[in-house]
Hints:
Layout: H1 3-22, E1 28-32, E2 44-47, E3 50-54, H2 58-73, H3 86-102, H4 107-118, H5 124-137, H6 142-156, H7 163-183, H8 188-200, H9 209-226, H10 231-244, H11 252-259, H12 263-273, H13 285-289, H14 293-300, H15 314-337, H16 342-362, E4 365-368, E5 371-374, H17 394-402, H18 404-422, H19 427-438
Parallel strand pairs: 1-3
Antiparallel strand pairs: 2-3, 4-5
Amino acid sequence: xxxxxxxxxxxxxxxxxxxxxxxxxxxxxxxxxxxxxxxxxxxxxxxxxxxxxxxxxxxxxxxxxxxxxxxxxxxxxxxxxxxxxxxxxxxxxxxxxxxxxxxxxxxxxxxxxxxxxxxxxxxxxxxxxxxxxxxxxxxxxxxxxxxxxxxxxxxxxxxxxxxxxxxxxxxxxxxxxxxxxxxxxxxxxxxxxxxxxxxxxxxxxxxxxxxxxxxxxxxxxxxxxxxxxxxxxxxxxxxxxxxxxxxxxxxxxxxxxxxxxxxxxxxxxxxxxxxxxxxxxxxxxxxxxxxxxxxxxxxxxxxxxxxxxxxxxxxxxxxxxxxxxxxxxxxxxxxxxxxxxxxxxxxxxxxxxxxxxxxxxxxxxxxxxxxxxxxxxxxxxxxxxxxxxxxxxxxxxxxxxxxxxxxxxxxxxxxxxxxxxxxxxxxxxxxxxxxxxxxxxxxxx
Length: 445
């Protein structure tokens, strides 16, 4: 590189650093398509908390910075890592900043930033802002998300962190994840980061984690309604469903108010419509609404012969069923409105599998290698541990398939499969095959 280009690149590096130093509110970086520098001005653009770099200079800047960094970090011929000093930290920061903004898929440089943070050459909060700039242009950069999680772990170790500071951190992370997911469809990395943030907060007793579970469940419902093919979001939705199962009883009314839905009423209505005709007990929708959670679960699983003597929380089981049936009804509406989307059928498999798992747990069985086996409780049946993997007898399977809840689930799904098949949706046939062979329901469908 000749002296003129050398001077130009150095000026660009300085201009980028000046913009980043003067404006701590930068939230976006991008490369602006410009073929040549016709106006003889700086290619560094700064407008409304956004920074840009004209495309004509990117190649020269990147090659120069990358070669400089390799000389600073790795020495020839032994390629040993040079010791970092305060004299070189400022220069390295400028070079690493612009190099990662152009190409963030360089794990070596992210590791170098970690070292600089540990030695206090870089500040953790400013590093969070830098990764936000990187993700604004490369929303699927796994290295940036990984580095951001490392920074958050370091920040959360601070025992003096106040609740308002923790709330600000959480809101910032969720907002960044939403922006990254919106810019890049099926962004597994952003949804995985969002899941990590929520999981980390479970250990903070001063944080209202139940309310966050409710907000995230509601958020994911709005998102999947607009992004029906985003399989990463559906995976996050399933994570939210599992979290909703664990919210406290005090938060249940808050949950129903936020989603603006009476889960129990919808559950009862679905039960009444799909009630099997061959049972001796018949109940109308009005009668079922008067049932308590204990009475309702006893009715739906009246054939249960589980030998476990542990106390069963029927209220919790009932609320799990209410949430899952709400998911089924939502899935029905989405598949009717947005036809022929495979992702929503995969989500339906998850819902049905969860419903079957609840029933199997109530009957003291578990599915292993495609067959149902006894799952004796280790607390109640210590002497029967050697029998825990014994196959269930035909009587046990008949009890499961004869319970009202099982009949309701199968009738509900069979009706919907037939409806979608008549509408020309081939994925309905695949879903039926899944029920027959993956869930082992070939004899009852």
